[in-house]
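Researcher: Next entry in the queue.
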Amino acid sequence: MATFIRNLSRKTVKLTCFGVGVVGTASLANKAINDDLDDITYFFSRHLFKTATKGTTPKKKVVVLGSGWGALSFANKLDPDCYQVTVLSPRPFFFYTPLLVGSTTGVVSPGAIIEPIRDSSPNVEFLRVACRDVDLETRKVFCENGVDLDYDHLVVAVGAQPNTFGIPGVEKYGRFMKEIEHGRQVRKDMLNLIEDADVARAAGDLETMKRLLHFVVVGGGPTGVEFCGEISDFIGQDLRRLYPKLSDHFKVSLVEALPGLLTMFDKSVGAYVHGHLEKQGVDIRLNAMVKEVEQEKVHLKMKDGSVNSMGYGILVWVAGVGMRPFTKALCEKIGKEAGQTDRRGLLVDPCLRVKGTRSGEVFAIGDCAVSGKPPTAQVAYQQGKYLGRMFRHGSSHLITDPEAPAFDYKHQGIMAYVGKSEAAAELNPNAIIKLGRSSITDHMWWRSLYGECDHLKVMGWAGFAHPSLTTCGGGRFTENATTSRSWGGWALPSGARSILASCSLHGTAGQWRVTGRALQCSAALLLHRHKAQTRKLHEILGFMFDGAWAVRWKASSTCGGASIRAGKHK
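Model: Structure for this entry, 570 residues:
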């Protein structure tokens, strides 16, 4: 009996140690993936070795306006022992913006891409109010319902709103794709239009039926292209089966004022996407500017000066973003003479301090800030973390320091789903294998450029899975692992998810062509740690594409300038 107890105790200890090791490794991986390894050292310095002066200094009041990528990444970095943080926003939840387009066609449900602020940021006080005004002299914000708050530091992260460019009828008749409510409204309108079109068909009104089944998308950026891809899939996979009598009359048109699609991508990628969408039946009109939108018709001015008109059932406007009224009012309050001369948002210095305000008091991050960086979720997320680290104990002197290290944006890449299980991507390998920081990774990169059959292991960044590939003869690659809804993902303790895979790369003169299967989870190659992704994992992983695609790697004269271009492999 004693021997049995000893053996049982040993096994229990071993299993416990193994379990602790697994959980610890997963937690460490989670920190590394989400760029939070500094939290570990900060925890030890602040919580295990507390100073005798703890609690004697009053907490400074930090007010954060907004509940998006920048606002929450900043708030979650702050030390609750040092700051009293209040988040103000009319939206009581964070939502994963890259999956908003998928919610319009049912690929993901709106509930799967949102998480309440009180869950994601338990250490902050949240008030569901909109800020109306700010007194920069007395350091006070004025909100709805009579809520007035004092602050020591104010962080403006209110984002942006759709920009109609003053075109008549867009605000009244167009549908937007910026908030979770917009996705719900677009889905509701599309389904109602289809039912109305079926009634018009039964009544013999074919012209009305065709107009109602015409979906017009204005804007050839990632959101517009993704929406066209999703709608094309929705029509081909569901609507033609459910409405066989309407199947020949569905039409999707994409209108873009510029001469190409996805202008932020390499031109070859944009050209491929253009052809890919046309093969799906999308009517693409380039060099076409919207002049006016009526209730049932949109007027386009073409490059040659002619004006074309076409009827539509629903018009989705994704042609750009502009300042919110609060941001505009704050810019005017500070004044052009103080430095606020940009019509796009609040001008900030390299440390994200708002120009024209007292140093270290007012900051702006995300889409409402003009920092020289693109208005994307990646930028806002990294800006929030950068600013949060500046506010931490031991670094708070940097808040007002004119010589403080500037915000350094590390571009992870961009990605857009284009329909029929295919995607376009532009990735930055320097953000993954850390070129220029280690002789080992530099040697791997160099050997992969000029070696004959060298292998380069790549870890999939959070929110994106690189294809798992192996080499074949002649520099061509085939799939080594099949992706499926149960492939490759796991939930980490905080709710974050990452997918790991490896690429075997081979090429000469710094170029490769790679084919394989991959998994698209977001347009922004980031993953905010929220539980919605583990609650509805199947819906989140529904953004799968298993078509062949190609990646062309290019290396510039410096290691840090390496980039990847992606498109369909032929």
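Model: Residues 444-570 have pLDDT under 50 and may be disordered.
Researcher: Noted, moving on.
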